[in-house]
Give the backbone structure.
Amino acid sequence: MLTADFDFELPPELIAQHPLPQRDASRLLVVHRASGSLEHRAFSDIVDYLRPGDVMVLNNSRVIPARLRAMNARTSGKFEVLLLEENAENDWWVMLRPGKRAQLGAQLTLLDANGNPTPLNAVVTEINQEGHRRLKFSGPENVLDVVERIGEVPLPPYIERKGKTELEADKERYQTVYANPAGSVAAPTAGLHFTPALLERVATVGVEVHFVTLHVGLGTFAPVKSDNITDHTMHEERYEVPPSTADAINRARAENRRIIAVGTTSLRVLESATAGKDEPLKSGPGRARIFIYPPYQFRCVDLLLTNFHLPRSTLIMLVSAFATPGEPSGRETVLHAYRTAIENRYRFFSYGDAMLLC
């Protein structure tokens, strides 16, 4: 299957630049997989598609202000630093721009919000095949604590902001209301639509709400560059499945109750932690390496709530696989739904509207 098969044209004005004032006021396109029919609903109507006994699984990873500024300690040349993944305390893989000016051994000094040097320094200790740098930070504090003061929200490049003042609102809105352990550099966007009140309504229906943690990396949103999707190397992301979540899911599966994944990140965790359709889901830490594209037979998830994704991305491929499990035809189902969404002026990508595949 070719990467070009998952391409589509999107009018630029449909890329949501700002979230709606009310989280659950977004629209919801419901895709009925068996019939292929579509429904146009409000996101707050999600409860109409839930049943008592369903288990809803959400990714509770918290986005960190991962975009930092730095300078070369020797030449004073400026850098943009984007934290990607923590290896250990004060040891991170990062994306540096301009990367060519940061070779092995380069010494950096982090800058505060006003461009002044801070006591936190870093040295480039490794460079991987993707050109990412491994930085070892040193100073009086853990860099993860420092970023809360001097870091910027790592919004995707398709969202435009004019200066730091506009970014202030994103610190709260580019975050789910249930975010807890810090570690993501991009939001698990399907969860952005939920409010505490809506989650209470979900529970009132009789749905069990549980959490997993997957720290979202930039690779989640990266386009597939190879012509054939089977040549694409999938990124890895760290995850954790609490024992209470694994127990709830395993009980539900044994009793033929439905599992609902909120977002592709939650789905990737559940599929990664389940060895087979008749195998129990395992709790504990892991690394999600799974690349899901048509045809794929899902092991654990029955419904998927997600946003509208970038063309040629691994995410639209995953959604296409879910549209018709075990068959290659899901691409047509999803692209038809996307065309319908475009015709009806849905809002796309991180701050956009949602889609439920049921």
Notes: Helices lie at 143-150, 164-167, 170-173, 196-204, 243-254, 264-272, 314-323, 330-343. The chain has two domains: 3-63+173-357, 67-150. DSSP finds eight helices and 17 strands in the chain.
